[in-house]
Amino acid sequence: MDSLGGKVALVFPGQGSQFVGMGRALYEASAAARRVFDQADEVLGFSISRLCFHGPAEDLEDTINAQPAILTVSIAALEAMKERLANTGQKVEPVVVAGHSLGEFTALVAAGVIDFPAGLQLVRERGRLMKEAGEERPGGMAAVIGLDTETLAAVCVDAADGAVITVANDNCPGQTVISGEIAALMRAMEMAKAKGAKRVARLGISIASHSPLMARASAGLSEILSKLPLHAPQVPVVANVSGLTMRSVEEVRQELAHHVERPVNWTRSVAEMANSGVTTFIEVGPGQVLSGLIRRIQRDAITLNLTDLGLPADRREA
Fold it and tell me: Which residues have CB under 8 Å from 315's CB, separation 6+?
């Protein structure tokens, strides 16, 4: 059986990639994907597959549902991809895996650190804790295009005025997300425009992910993780917070302890993968957001998605 050419990384998307209709074509085309969806429905005690395929969008976008839904579709896609390649005498042997924010948990499942049922329950609880933290300390997020991270970090310091506002996601050069309390967020958005940002857009989310407002959620998640048996990664996993490769259970525990309150360093993560020799990145899950970011970080990278590997594309429900 032939492996895909070059050194391959598998990357998994985070929250915001969800849409009504995701996973449906995979379910219809792949027995391996169907097994994943059926297992998810059983583990969660309700039909997450129905929510993915048919919505309603409002329920799917609720963080408590969106997180297990994206994890389910991404793992279904991974299993469908393996099944498809096996049928053509090929296989994928990644040298590293990574995920953006929530996607890091999918990467940990793919690397064998946690099994799929435990991963599902973990991200469902992560969503619940984040929702509760957001209700207790409301906040928001905004995307800023066209400013470097250092300038934007200085803007956040100036805009804070005693409130919480911080750089949350360094997605790629010139594309950054800020997160924090509403008044400080609005000030930072205006200051970013004044500093020359090409575009500043408030995101449709009422939770200040990857900011200190998530401290309570982080503490709750750490408590759950302390009781969860973890296994050493079968494939190295690149961490969001440090941008470094994790090879041990201890490194994974340290990364996840503060994952929801610290920034996602995606630019650094992709550079780490490229420096380890990765030439091909396969985005596994709904959407193609990460492929676009990767091409802006590593211009000579080859990016593939599921359709490139012969799997059907999901159609968004009207």
Answer: 21, 24, 25
**Whether 314 contacts 301, CB under 8 Å:** no
Residue 46 has what DSSP assignment? S
DSSP for 85-99, written as a single string: HHHTTEE---SEEEE
Q: Is 174 helix (H, G, I), strand (E, B) or coil?
A: coil
Tell me how crowded residue 158 is: count the other CB atoms within 10 A of its CB.
Answer: 12
How many Å from the N-terminal Cα to the C-terminal Cα in the chain? 41
Q: Which of 30, 49, 210, 269 is catalytic?
A: 210
Residue 210 annotated as catalytic: yes
Instruction: State pTM to two decimals.
Output: 0.95
pLDDT higher than threshold 60 for residue 318: no
Which is the catalytic residue, given 101, 211, 218, 291? 101
| Alpha helices (H) in 12-171, listed in sequence order | 24-29, 31-44, 48-54, 57-61, 63-87, 103-110, 116-136, 149-160
| 303 pLDDT above the threshold of 80 | yes
